[in-house]
Design a protein that fits this description.
This protein has one helix at about 1-20; strands at about 50-55, 65-75, 80-90, 95-110, 115-130, 145-165, 165-175, 195-200, 210-220, 225-235, 245-255, 265-275, 275-285, 295-305. With about 325 residues, the protein is mostly beta strands. It has one domain: monomeric porin ompg (Porin, Beta Barrel). A 14-stranded antiparallel beta barrel has the order 1-2-3-4-5-6-7-8-9-10-11-12-13-14. It starts with a helix and ends in a 17-residue tail after the last strand.
């Protein structure tokens, strides 16, 4: 009985916190989609990139969280780039949709045969948050029994640095304190700031296959929660235009969780065919307290436009296929 109560409390806590986020941080950044979490990655590659994702969490559970995103980013000059993201996020009775516009600036210190680049990115976002109380049966006067909506704004700022086969990004998400009008209970907070750091290196350029280990850390200011992703990605080129790759990722939280550290294992498989990219992501929670055993599923479909000649030395998020 105690374990069931703990599970219910953990589920309520996790759902409430997730509902307040402006944009969930999933694992699709490992599917050649790093712009979703780091604004400095807008226009970072040698192609304009369109990415469409559909994610469904907690399969088999009614009203489980789902997320759809459509993103595009491109260079508009030698140094300047723009990007845009449209997303729709639903989590039980909470839902939100929004639009993000990004401006990025890249300073190249490189020669033609090597990469040395510093990047800056700023994203501004508009969101509409909704709480559907029409199915609630309660005497609580704070719940109206209606569909409530609220609009708010926020912004992300980030830095990126690439040198040869190494890459790094640092982003502060949700810079602004954004008051919202929705009645989301005692967990409501105006502070959604999240600090994110990504580091990675690309090995084996001249080998038959390549490996790219990386780590991504997050710090949530309001709750003190720390989450770290440990990732390993393997590439195998079929020819100059086609490539297959696979990822294994492990995420764990270290602070801020009142019941148990969140632990997730995520395998990803994908391939690039000419200018198309397709990937499938599966996330499974592990530990003594598991919300749902069916896991989370996500599909990503991408298309590259206006590709330029790849740089001789750069990691894969800068070049499409070698």
């Amino acid at each position: 009985m105690v374990k069931k109560l703990l599970l219910l409390f953990f589920f309520s806590f996790f759902t409430g916190i997730s509902a307040q986020e402006t944009f969930p941080v999933n694992f699709d950044y490992l599917s050649d989609n790093i712009y979703l979490i780091h604004p400095a990655a807008a226009g970072i590659g040698n192609c304009s990139k369109i990415r469409l994702t559909y994610g469904q969490q907690w399969m088999g559970m009614e009203d489980g969280p789902s997320l759809q995103t459509l993103s595009y980013h491109d260079r508009i000059t030698e140094r300047a780039a723009v990007g845009a993201i449209v997303f729709n996020d639903k989590n039980g009775y909470h839902s939100k949709w929004g639009f993000t516009g990004t401006y990025a600036y890249h300073i190249n210190f490189d020669r033609e045969d090597m990469m040395n680049q510093l990047s800056f990115g700023l994203s501004l976002m508009y969101l509409q948050n909704s709480l559907d109380q029409t199915d609630f049966v309660t005497d609580d006067p704070s719940l109206t029994g209606e569909l409530e909506t609220g609009n708010y704004y926020n912004a992300d700022f980030g830095l990126g640095y690439h040198y040869l086969d190494a890459h790094s990004y640092f982003t502060v998400k949700n810079i602004l304190n954004s008051p919202r009008d929705l009645n989301t209970g005692s967990l409501e907070s105006d502070n959604l700031r999240r600090y994110m750091l990504t580091l990675g290196y690309y090995f084996g350029r001249e080998k038959s296959f390549q490996l790219e280990p990386s780590v991504m850390g997050q710090f949530v200011e309001e709750t003190g929660e720390i989450l770290v992703d440990f990732n390993i990605k393997a590439y195998k080129s079929i020819n100059e235009k086609n490539q297959i790759w696979a990822v294994l990722s492990y995420r764990q939280s270290f602070e801020g969780n009142p019941v148990e550290s969140l632990k997730m294992v995520t395998p990803i498989i994908g391939f690039t065919f000419n200018k198309w990219m397709v990937s499938y992501t599966y996330t499974h929670q592990v530990g003594d307290i598991v919300i749902n055993t069916q896991g989370s599923h996500q599909l990503t479909l991408g298309f590259n436009l206006f590709c330029q000649k790849p740089r001789a030395t750069a990691c894969p998020n800068l070049n499409s296929v070698y």
